[in-house]
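Chapter summary example.
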Amino acid sequence: MKRVAKPVFFIVALLILFFGITSIWGIHGQNGDNRVTYIKGAGDIRWGIDINGGVEVTFTPDTTEEVTADDMNSARAIIETRMTSNHITDYEIYTDFSNNRIIVRFPWKNGETDFDPETAIQELAATAELTFRPGGEYESTETAEDGSIIFKTPTGETAETVLLSGADVESASAQAYRDTTTNRPKYLVDLKLTESGKEKFAEATEKYLNKTISIWMDDIMISSPTVQSVISDGNASITGVDQQEAIDLAEKINAGALPFKLTTSNFSTLSPTLGMSSLNAMTIAGVIAFILVAIFLIVVFRLTGAIAVISLIGQVALCLAAVSGYFPFVNSFTLTLPGIAGIILSIGMGVDANIITATRIKEELWAGKTLDGAIQKGDENSFWAIFDGNITTIIVSLMLMAVFGPVNILGGIFGASTTGSIYSFGYTLLIGNIGNFIFGVGTTRLMTKSLSGFKPLRKKWLFGGAKE
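The structure predicted for these 468 residues follows.
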């Protein structure tokens, strides 16, 4: 058997424990009076309607022009895009073409305290019409809650001329930078323009060099920079926004503009079918069950059982991290009751994978093999059994996500509520099974081979064999 360095066990175990702790509690700090989240934890998970309740709202077009079926489908598609851009996967959307209505159901935001449906639906109904205009003439002003002045409704040349629109923007992203004067972090929205937008912006910055080009979102001026040079590389930025404003603005621009303004004709709150108290009870039950499983593994398989417990902690941590937004490259996810079921099922498969490996090692030891030989043979004999069971589940998970996900291929047959629930189940089951390969196969075997290199631990009975 190829030996693994002794320190590997401690390195892997510490990394798993750190991952487990941070995936539950996250890492947070303070920047003045503001709480800064560096790494999201379980407390940042957005719970589904069945657990935390939500909002039901009916939208109608606010226009005197004729609304076509294509307009309604376009509005529905953009609302769906805004849902997914906000990482909300537990939602239902129904379009009533005869009455020109769009009915939407979606869960509350994480950490919601006011539970005000009017505030919750603003992010869906905003027209998000981005325009670049010459000058900075405005009709009226308002005072924001923080005391800043809001300039509203363009007039004069600013109202008459649109240099670029949201259609000329390929993508938008919120970025942070450090102000060299105050040495404090500031935020902006970085815009990447399309090819046509690049040409328009180059012409506009050349024409209005050393003059103002204002940027408007709907009828509110959000920035009024002075053009200091001709910009021909297709990159622009919106400054003067705080962190949350930059994130919200980037998401609205990426989500696109609605074909018409939507008004709210009716709204109500949705009560959870499960509730947070039931979730707390499930959490306590889960912790107790994990402790009992850990005791069983350690009693029956001894050292390999203890290693299996550490690996299971890593698998649980990965499941939580995949839905909370722990990783910057993996979006947060709306966790529903079926999603929790997917996590539980995948953890059960993780327990099974560790038991298969530990049992194979135990059998080889009782057959008279040396410790190294038993570990090597046990790993080889257990791999394909674990692989077959997990790869088939992964295939099923991918199929569930493809068929019942945001694409909604069979939504007309099964309904929107069914698709959201099954997609959540498929996602968490997929992540759990991937974690099973990483931890149940990878880290378990590394730690087992590493510990077998310590002379005091090279006793067969510690690995499930007979006492010598």
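To summarize the output: The chain has a mean pLDDT of 84.
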